[in-house]
Amino acid sequence: MxxxxxxxxxxxxxxxxxxxxxxxxxxxxxxxxxxxxxxxGGDQFDRQDIYQNVFLxxxxxxxxxxxxAKFSTWLYRVAFNQCLNYYRKHLPVASxxxxxxxxxxxxxxxxQLQAIHHALTRLKGPIRLCFHLFYIEQWGLSEIxxxxxxxxxxxxxxxxxxxKHIRQNEEVRAWINxxx
Length: 180
Hints:
0% strand, elongated, mainly alpha, Rna Polymerase Sigma Factor, Chain: A, Arc Repressor Mutant, subunit A, 10 helices
């Protein structure tokens, strides 16, 4: 009876173009990939599209995997980036918050959310991403640091900058002052 190849052997074979090894590697990490995709939300069709994008991205990039990080970490990062790319193209953040047609009891809460949303859209790069992952997706600091390839201290710093930026936003300050 022949032993099945190790992960490092599958990676080496996949890097030489062995499609069976590549498929075995993807199958071994299927739950990891789907976990990342499901965490981003979307419907079944979005998840299928993203999974296919991850599959193709990994297939194209497997030759560049150098083994400096664990394969699962590298794969997580590829899946994460594909999710971000997909949602940037297909689900713009601005479409998630729409003005209510008629002001009602939730109008003030909606206005507060709108103010925060406007402040968030002004955040850029890793500051915005860290804020989103920590407060919206509720990821831990170490998880964010690993995926974004940052130190935990940098993640904390980005979160602090985001909070300061949001508090300094005039719309946000206006409704904070109104409730204080």
